């Protein structure tokens, strides 16, 4: 099975064509037995993640020993299965360098089981909150830009149809060994009537939804994704969690706390030490201002993900030029690519 696909999105998420969604037959199909064997019978020892509606297993495909991630959904109603299948057909054609690729599925079970590329180095949440200070400023800025471009790609996937991620969080951003970002959990965003599933979902989104979400719209949109991304940017800049009892009740939500400090000119004290030490002040301020616009209370005041991706690209380009100008004569400016780890400059 050929797992390589051509990219269907530009650098910041613009689709290259208006193709029809592929038919079910065009999606590589795994048998239920293959996936059962790949996960040792869906053994608990193979579990690598849980969602509000699914469990993810590390799988080793029989025959070629290819390591994959296998997502098994909880039971759905018939109408949800039909919607799920339609969305899988659409999302299968998406291939952005920083989206986790769908490699295939199994249609032999009541709910299709999806097979994804395996991303080995954990989540951005883990690196920020369980290993504080482990990410350089350069890595944070690159991860932010890669993530924005991937979400912009999802938003522009189908012309005339406003697709969205349904809430990007730091746990949804996976990292490869070179700290390249891969956005996951963007498929099969179903409007479920199951109260338990909805309760699990909204619990998992604490700190990522705008404070007045239930009063204003109570619906998830592309601009909801923008707000969530603003919280992710705040995490990258401050190292603080989206919700924390260590902050006052008024400042419990990071998005609210971050925006207040940005407006009051006291943001510097919030920044994680490594960001303060490594980031040029004008670049850090520029990223903080992007985050601030993402966190605006009213949807119409927030930028699009495409605009965010372009702005972060521009900030990163200026940073790389500044690093090159400051570096010794033997610095190779072409070593720092737009994707993957930047070898031209490293921070101890």
From TrEMBL:
Start-end of Polar residues biased regions: 14-24
Gene name for this UniProt entry: WAK5
Xref: InterPro entries: Kinase-like_dom_sf, Prot_kinase_dom, Protein_kinase_ATP_BS, Ser-Thr/Tyr_kinase_cat_dom, WAK-like
GO molecular function, one term: ATP binding
Annotated Gene3D superfamilies: Phosphorylase Kinase, domain 1 (3.30.200.20), Transferase(Phosphotransferase) domain 1 (1.10.510.10)
Residues involved in ATP binding: 72
Lineage: Eukaryota, Viridiplantae, Streptophyta, Embryophyta, Tracheophyta
Domain Protein kinase: 42-315
GO CC terms in record: plasma membrane
A single GO BP: cell surface receptor signaling pathway
Matching PROSITE patterns: PROTEIN_KINASE_ATP, PROTEIN_KINASE_DOM
UniProt keyword terms in alphabetical order: ATP-binding, Kinase, Nucleotide-binding, Receptor, Transferase
Enzyme class, spelled out: transferase
Protein name per its UniProtKB record: Wall-associated receptor kinase 5
Record bears the keyword Plastid: no
Short name of one Pfam family: PK_Tyr_Ser-Thr
Region (Disordered): 1-24
Documented EC number(s): 2.7.11.1
Domain of life: Eukaryota
Keyword Acetylation: no
């Amino acid at each position: 099975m050929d797992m390589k696909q051509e990219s269907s999105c530009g650098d910041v998420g613009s689709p290259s064509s208006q193709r029809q969604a592929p038919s079910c037959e065009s999606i590589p199909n795994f048998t239920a037995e293959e996936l059962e064997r790949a996960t040792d019978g869906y053994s608990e020892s193979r579990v690598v993640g849980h969602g509000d509606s699914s469990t993810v297993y590390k799988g080793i495909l029989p025959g070629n020993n290819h390591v994959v991630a296998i997502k098994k959904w909880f039971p759905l109603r018939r109408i949800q299965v039909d919607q799920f299948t339609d969305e899988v057909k659409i999302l299968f054609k998406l291939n952005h360098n920083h989206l986790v690729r769908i490699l295939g599925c199994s249609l032999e079970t009541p709910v299709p089981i999806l097979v994804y590329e395996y991303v080995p180095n954990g989540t951005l949440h883990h690196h920020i909150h369980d290993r504080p200070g482990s990410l350089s400023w350069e890595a944070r800025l690159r991860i932010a830009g890669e993530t924005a471009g991937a979400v912009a790609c999802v938003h522009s996937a189908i012309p005339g149809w406003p697709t969205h991620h349904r809430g990007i969080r730091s746990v949804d951003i996976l990292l490869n060994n070179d700290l390249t970002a891969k956005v996951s959990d963007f498929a099969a965003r179903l409007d479920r009537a199951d109260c338990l599933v909805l309760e699990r979902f909204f619990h998992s989104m604490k700190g990522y939804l705008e404070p007045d979400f239930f009063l204003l719209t109570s619906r998830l949109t592309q601009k909801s994704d923008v707000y969530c991304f603003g919280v992710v940017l705040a995490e990258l800049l401050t190292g603080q969690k989206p919700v924390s009892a260590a902050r006052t009740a008024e400042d419990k939500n990071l998005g609210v706390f971050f925006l207040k400090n940005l407006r009051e000119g006291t943001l510097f004290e919030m920044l994680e030490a490594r960001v303060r030490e490594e980031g040029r002040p004008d670049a850090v301020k520029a990223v903080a201002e992007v985050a601030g616009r993402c966190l605006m209370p009213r949807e119409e005041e927030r930028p699009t993900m495409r605009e965010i991706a372009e702005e972060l690209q521009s900030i990163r380009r200026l940073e790389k030029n500044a690093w090159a100008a400051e570096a010794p004569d033997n610095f190779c400016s072409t070593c720092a690519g737009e994707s993957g780890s930047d070898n031209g400059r490293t921070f101890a």
